[in-house]
């Protein structure tokens, strides 16, 4: 799936508007026919492509995208996961190669994977403008499919001034404004992230900068069960934070404790049943 | 799963004979407590470990192997998959990092992954005695769980002289002798493989060397559907052969054609419903 995305298989099949043969796809994408045929057949097995035999030729298969590929794997789709997949393919996969070292040492593996000091994980993740841009585009991919659920988990319409801490490329803010038309969202992030967000992701019409004291904070996180017995996706996220950052996933009780210590009196938790959950703290 | 195997988590829990805390496991295996706790919880989510809370302490979890881990993930079990997993972890994973290049170029990725010439894939796989030994132990892991099914797919009792081409570490031969007590099996492989097999895997009592003209040949392969639409495991195997070797997976018809060309008149195919299938050709 990752390789077919990287090579542009799904984009080509969307643009062509008709099923294509393995040879045609290989020629268009500058790939070997032997390798491409095998990749396409594996994508059929994974239900990312559908193949039909030509009536005339008899033996040649023609490939087309399945609906799920058109929605999630083409670059141009509003719900495209292309950017986050490329981030996983080119950064996360390389860190996970050193998972055993990460568990032994209890720290991230940027040094082994990229020769970069592990002391400042966000410095490592944002080691070049290009890498930062890829990460921001990747985060936007995620919020294009997960954003609405976490924002609708609570009725946030009483909050007209909303602050998105670490809001990056602005896709969550965009979902928020769409769901709560009376809200304004202020994105807080590192200065260089904000600069790129303004240049590349959020147009001036969309953006409003505001400051506000007090209010509520919505934590958008993937919650561990209280006994940490699951969900397995969240446990694996926590493994990933070990190899890539200094953070970890937490239980609802752990987040509540953090919020209480920061002076939030009323704390409520909602699980969305999807990857990200919502914790609301009020001052 | 791979990292917990590599660090020896399942072996330690088997040997200890009692559930252990995360701190105890980390200390025994020389790992960080922070990384180990996260790894253990992820293994609980993957159902490779079970955790129970201590009654006295209240909050500390004790971890033990699940049955599947005792059978397949401990080194000492007769059905241990430890060696093949280490092979996947340290060789296959690294080649798959370059899957897009493999599809572009239509050839294996030993050069990018290990700086080794891709022209002789078995030379690359057997680039040192240690690597060859790991590969042979890995193959033996596979036959310890898949061997009996392919050998029982046909009644091979009429064949008392059996030749195992590329028989490596001898685990398939051992299953064959166990299932057909009247058979003798001759392993054919590269001279250095045979030497290591004799020294490390097959004791003199087990081994009989014999030659025989004619007879039958049992191809033990993972068969693609005739339209190559699946099974997805076999398609992924074929992708792996692209990044690691020069071979590919084939359909039953393709194998039949190869056998016919080699003079085998009667060819029969049986799918086992598991990973490997059986094709019998008779002369």
UniProtKB/TrEMBL annotation, chains A, B:
Source organism superkingdom: Eukaryota
One of the record's GO molecular function terms: protein dimerization activity
Annotated protein name in UniProt: Acetylserotonin O-methyltransferase
All copies of domain O-methyltransferase dimerisation, residue ranges: 1-74
Entry-linked PROSITE patterns: SAM_OMT_II
Keywords linked to the UniProt accession: Methyltransferase, S-adenosyl-L-methionine, Transferase
PANTHER family assigned: O-METHYLTRANSFERASE
Keyword Lyase: no
Keyword S-adenosyl-L-methionine: yes
Source species: Malurus cyaneus samueli
Gene Ontology biological process terms from the UniProt entry: methylation
Pfam families: Dimerisation, Methyltransf_2
O-methyltransferase C-terminal domain residues: 96-214
């Amino acid at each position: 799936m990752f390789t077919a995305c990287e090579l542009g298989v799904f984009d080509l099949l969307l643009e062509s508007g008709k099923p294509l043969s393995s040879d045609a796809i290989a020629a268009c994408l500058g790939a070997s026919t032997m390798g491409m045929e095998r990749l396409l057949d594996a994508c059929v097995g994974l239900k990312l492509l559908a193949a039909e035999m030509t009536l005339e030729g008899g033996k040649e298969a023609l490939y087309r995208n399945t609906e799920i590929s058109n929605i999630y794997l083409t670059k141009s789709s509003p719900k495209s996961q292309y950017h986050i997949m490329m981030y996983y393919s080119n950064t996360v996969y390389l860190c996970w190669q050193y998972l055993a070292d990460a568990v032994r040492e209890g720290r991230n593996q940027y040094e082994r994977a990229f020769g970069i000091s592990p002391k400042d994980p966000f410095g490592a993740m944002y080691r070049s403008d290009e890498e930062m841009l890829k990460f921001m585009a990747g985060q936007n991919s995620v919020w294009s499919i997960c954003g609405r659920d976490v924002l609708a988990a609570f009725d946030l319409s009483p909050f007209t001034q909303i602050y998105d801490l670490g809001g990056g490329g602005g896709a969550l803010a965009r979902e928020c404004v769409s769901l709560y038309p009376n809200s304004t969202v202020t994105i807080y992030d590192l200065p260089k992230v904000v600069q790129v967000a303004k240049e590349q992701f959020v147009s001036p019409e969309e953006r409003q900068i505001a400051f506000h004291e007090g209010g509520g904070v919505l934590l958008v996180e993937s919650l561990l069960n209280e006994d940490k017995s699951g969900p397995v996706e969240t446990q694996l996220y926590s493994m990933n934070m070990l190899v890539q950052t200094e953070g970890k996933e937490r239980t609802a009780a752990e987040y509540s404790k953090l919020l209480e210590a920061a002076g939030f009196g009323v704390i409520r938790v909602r699980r969305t049943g999807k990857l990200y959950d919502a914790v609301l703290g009020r001052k």
